[in-house]
Design brief:
By secondary structure, the chain is an all-alpha fold. 73% of the residues lie in helices and 0% in strands. Helix 1 runs antiparallel to helix 2, helix 1 packs parallel to helix 3 and helix 2 runs antiparallel to helix 3. The longest helix is centred in the middle third of the chain and has 18 residues.
Length: 59
């Protein structure tokens, strides 16, 4: 996978937070699982950067 894929995954998760705020725990779990897969794929993968990108935007 490439950075483009990681960014696309993060964008989907961020939108899920926006559209389904009541599902925060489930989306957070999916975020961690996807991050683990990405980290296995690429040892340079930066988990915290992914978590930040996948988090809902704060005002």
């Amino acid at each position: 996978m490439s950075r483009k894929h990681y960014r696309a995954f993060a964008a989907v998760l961020r939108r899920a937070h926006e559209y389904y705020p009541e599902s925060k725990d489930g989306i957070d779990h999916l975020t961690r699982e996807i991050a683990s897969i990405c980290a296995e794929d690429n040892h340079h993968f930066r988990r915290q950067q992914f978590y930040d990108a996948a988090s809902p935007e704060t005002p």
